[in-house]
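Consider the following assembly input.
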Amino acid sequence: MDTMRETDMPTGEELHPDLISSVHADMPAEEMLYDLAELFRIFADSTRIKILYVLFEAEMCVCDIAQVLGMTQSAISHQLRVLKQAKLVKFRRDGKTIYYSLADDHVRTIIGMGMEHLCE
Amino acid sequence: MDTMRETDMPTGEELHPDLISSVHADMPAEEMLYDLAELFRIFADSTRIKILYVLFEAEMCVCDIAQVLGMTQSAISHQLRVLKQAKLVKFRRDGKTIYYSLADDHVRTIIGMGMEHLCE
DNA sequence: CTTTCATTTGAACAACTGTTCATATGTTAT
DNA sequence: ATAACATATGAACAGTTGTTCAAATGAAAG
């Protein structure tokens, strides 16, 4: 509701008023952009990336993943929790052990995209 | 150089020894996975996502971006620095103002990929 | 040169994140 | 029951991150 002119203004804080309002109108909802950042945050840790990479090849139980990555079972379990909540991995129970696997192929695509960007 | 058998072992910490060694062999270099996580870390902040989204539409100067996002010029400048270092944006100077724009189309693809994952 | 404006930079602080350690849950076998 | 094992969870701690504030560049104009 501001009544500022589009030309000949004091230029206090904005240099290109019409560009600003045009761009602002085309922005996705605040919440969507927040969710997007939150999604990328999941991939923003090398332990989680490693876990996902491991699961590219086969479903695996927690202690095997820990073994492959040379990390504590507890640390892996904590990260699997994050991946689980983000719906990036799924799991099934077989007796005492729990097998984790990729939830869908989107994970592969997103990580592949990142890899492609790096290798250039 | 451990000489453990592949069958009939005490199962101290690993449940599936051959799977472990096979998967471990197929893993990309430690450093590569670290770099990959670092790349996603750039996208893992909603301010940076917003900046990139704004630059989808047009090149823009710092104060205009700040205006669109309703944030301090200083905050935007700090984040542009991060994006610049990651080679995700480039800039040109025109007198006093500096115009930022997307470095290449990879940014668009990666963010698009994330969006696609969210909208399902 | 001095002023003004766009931007950058550094220090400081609060908020967040990942790992560790100890402990709890849940399952199987004895 | 109890023991052994795979996994999960909570608290705590160090390390990292994003914003703010104040001050510093750097460029154009008077």
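Residues 4 and 118 of chain A are 45 Å apart (CA to CA). Ask yourself how this observation constrains the way the partners meet.
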